Amino acid sequence: MHDLPTSFGGLPFVREQRIGKWGFGLCVVPVGEGACDAGEGYPSMSANVESRAKPFIKWAGGKNKLVPQLRQKMNGWKGVYHEPFLGGGALFWSIKPSHATLSDSNAHLINAYVTVRDDVDALIAELASYPHEYPFFRQMRATFGKGTPVQRAAGFIYLNKTCFNGLFRVNKSGEFNVPFGKYENPTICDAENLRACSRALHGVYLLQEDFTGVLRRSENSDFVYFDPPYLPLSVTSSFTAYTPNGFSLEDHVRLRDTALILANRGVRVVVSNSAAPAIRDLYAEHFDIDVVLAKRSINADAEGRGAIKEFIITSRSPSEEAP
Ligand SMILES: C[S@@+](CC[C@H](N)C(=O)[O-])C[C@H]1O[C@@H](n2cnc3c(N)ncnc32)[C@H](O)[C@@H]1O
After folding, report:
1. How far, in Å, from the CA of 226 to the mean position of ligand 1?
2. Whole-prediction pTM value?
């Protein structure tokens, strides 16, 4: 069991500054009451010009298909939106909350989001010059993660649009190793969408960190959506090794503990995961579990593209949990 912080010392929020290797660091800024706009029946949503923004990358495990069910779980929520396993951010882009913290452990991904938010014109200028050609793809793969933040972000988006199934995979040396995809004419630079995304990300805090970082800044009435790499369906609670996606059963236990601390604080928590028996065992006592049928959107195995059972796990309010 890990030692998890239960409070943030009275400091209400954290935001990033551009410092260090990946251009991020932490500083504290306050967020006041009623910080979110109203709209669409969800109290904290913005309904403005950036409403056309849609995910600017595709992502394995993306939750586009699950968005309607996830949104149902948000009824009545009023606080700040947190998404600590951001990936392509399907739920975030569907609601575009004006006050949000988005984070992920993948530094390349977060650099791309920060660049879209802060430097979208330079990003578009760079990306628009990239051709859909195999020799250029190989060059981008060889230089992956190198150069200025704008060049790194452009390379990341280019590879996402042109590699096999939009997968993200690096070897132990950090080299991108997904093969060239079979696309006729992929949209590599959707300038209009990137600009809409940039506007939607204005004022959104972006952080590269482990998911437990959310404990430092979420408070009563906030909403946290956890979408971790799923536990394989066959894994039981006696399993101890690392799973192929690098997120072990121990990480899932850490996640459940984090979700429980937040729920006890009055934060609305939603977790999606596979319908593995071990996941039911972890959450059954303190959370409500719905079984939903979901279609996978990125899957190399054509047979794996059918609907499969998944869990949507929701926190109970502290009063429901009281003995
Ligand atoms: C299933 S994907 C999220 C997909 C996203 N909801 C979407 O709609 O595209 C899981 C994400 O968790 C991130 N991740 C893996 N381990 C993590 C950790 N310990 N802390 C934070 N993020 C992590 C991965 O980089 C990946 O982007």
Report:
1. 8
2. 0.84
